[in-house]
Amino acid sequence: MDMDQNLDFDRYDRIRPIRWRGSHLELLDQRKLPFAVEYVECADSRSVGTAIRDLVVRGAPAIGIAAAFGVVLAARTIEAADGAQALERMAADIDELNRSRPTAVNLMWAIARMRRALAGAGADWRERIEQEALAIEREDLAANRHMGVLGAGLIVPGSGVLTHCNTGSLATAGFGTALGVIRAGVASHRIDRVFASETRPWLQGARLTVWELREDGIPATLIADAAGAHLMKSGAVQWLIVGADRICANGDTANKIGTYTHAIAARHHGVRVMVVAPSSTVDMATPDGSHIHIEERDGSELLAVSGQRTVAEGVSAFNPVFDVTPAGLIDAIVTEKGVIEHPDARKMAALFAG
Ligand code: MRU
């Protein structure tokens, strides 16, 4: 297929993790995939916050979209004459949603956008915030499709790629970020080989990415996280393509734990590194990666597999779930606003300041 306008987006993109039903939100329960496809119903903002914390819904853009609908649900519990009054009365619920996970800036970005929509709304404030949440979702899908085309354009036909974590439809409104580039790259015959690393300890790669790709008819091969360097040495992959939870003003990028390790191995083996994320993941207020709050989750995620303990009793675990890849290891940051090659503070400011 010829790039780019001809890309058949729907053919390679069938899964939707978030379904707004007007009265409630449905979230595809990602804890149960790939063996059960079940949606959790959220009828209030508290259950949306819990779903985000417990990883029912995960992936930076999807977290932001779910939180936006959480604000719409919080509005159901109050009466107010206008948006400003509603904002005051919903403050505690909105703050709670905002705290549900710390690293993905899309969450804070979406909440800030919902707060702005409320602050500027009159008597029609309920309708305004529902429309705002729907717009956040719609814009995310459009950004992903555009990034897919931009990112695939960087890839030479016949290439192999490695991805980490899950950055697909499951992590976004649809199509995905890094996985969107892979979808577009496969559809345009630029990518011949797709490898996904399992992503210990929660197994987003093993449980979600290879399932999602299989659902959409894209062949992919699973590797252990520790097999990344060995794979790169073999010459089978030309690009490491990953998403992001927060991209700082200098291009440093927080993403799923293990991304940094892959990026170091990639530089050693001449494999190029592409970070794909919508501008809602760019945080120009954070100067560099040293200022990012890295989420640490319960050690039990490391000590058991599917609830079955695999480690001797009495052992403790350290479980940071993100790491920071320095800008110097990144060859390209792809956003819907454009591509930055060899990112630094000056190039980031040129695209994102203001
Ligand atoms: O802990 P998770 O599963 O929410 O982490 C997800 C990631 O790290 C993704 O790579 C990132 O959010 C980008 S998703 C398009």
Q: Bound compounds, please?
A: 5-S-methyl-1-O-phosphono-5-thio-D-ribulose
Under CATH at level 1, the class of the largest domain stands as: Alpha Beta
Name the strands of the widest sheet in spatial order.
6-5-4-7-10-15-16
Overall SS class? alpha/beta
The total count of strands amounts to 16
Under the CATH scheme, the architecture of the largest domain is 3-Layer(aba) Sandwich
Quick overview:
The chain has 354 residues and is of the alpha/beta class. It is built from twelve helices and 16 strands. The protein has two domains: 3-142, Up-down Bundle (Four Helix Bundle (Hemerythrin (Met), subunit A)); 143-352, Rossmann fold (3-Layer(aba) Sandwich), CATH 3.40.50.
Protein model, in words:
The protein has helices at 45-53, 60-74, 83-89, 91-98, 105-119, 125-152, 178-187, 204-215, 228-233, 259-269, 300-303, 345-352; strands spanning 18-20, 25-28, 39-42, 159-164, 191-197, 221-223, 239-242, 246-248, 253-256, 272-276, 282-283, 304-305, 308-309, 322-325, 332-335, 338-341. The protein is α/β, with parallel strands linked by helices and 354 residues long. The chain has two domains: 3-142, Up-down Bundle (Four Helix Bundle (Hemerythrin (Met), subunit A)); 143-352, Translation initiation factor eif-2b, domain 2 (Rossmann fold, 3-Layer(aba) Sandwich). The protein is globular and about 65 Å long. Bound molecules: 5-S-methyl-1-O-phosphono-5-thio-D-ribulose (MRU). Residues 58-61, 104, 165, 167, 171-172, 177, 204, 243-245, 255-256, 321 line the site of 5-S-methyl-1-O-phosphono-5-thio-D-ribulose.
